[in-house]
Design a protein that fits this description.
There is one protein chain. Helix 4 (about 35-50) runs antiparallel to helix 5 (about 50-65). About 55% of the residues lie in helices and about 0% in strands. It is built from seven helices and no strands. The longest helix has 14 residues, at about 35-50.
């Protein structure tokens, strides 16, 4: 989908849905021993980071603390952070689509 959108609409920005990403936390991370702590940390990082640098620093701390380096889903999310993380998308016009959701 990403490649098709970029080809057909080269001047548009394709944003990912933060609500759907956060809804998948249980499915993608429930097997971890410290799932509840990971979920809490991730929610705080995503919703409370005011700058991109703050997000990246806290993300890396979380990955190290909970030894999540081998989680492909999280790695993919980090690689595409400019499409869904509030601190990265806040400077763009989104036609009324809000990046804020309730924790």
């Amino acid at each position: 989908m990403k490649n098709a959108i970029e080809i057909v609409f080269p001047n548009t920005k394709h944003r990912w849905c933060l609500w759907h990403i956060m809804k998948k936390l249980h499915e993608k991370l429930k097997s971890y021993k410290h799932y509840e702590s990971i979920k809490f940390a991730l929610e705080n990082i995503v919703y409370d980071s005011l700058t991109n640098i703050e997000f990246e620093d806290h993300w890396k701390e979380m990955i190290e603390k909970y030894e999540l380096q081998s989680n492909d889903w999280l790695r993919g999310l980090y690689d595409e952070r400019r499409r869904w993380v509030p601190s990265f998308v806040k400077g763009s016009f989104w036609a009324g689509i809000s990046y804020h959701t309730t924790k």
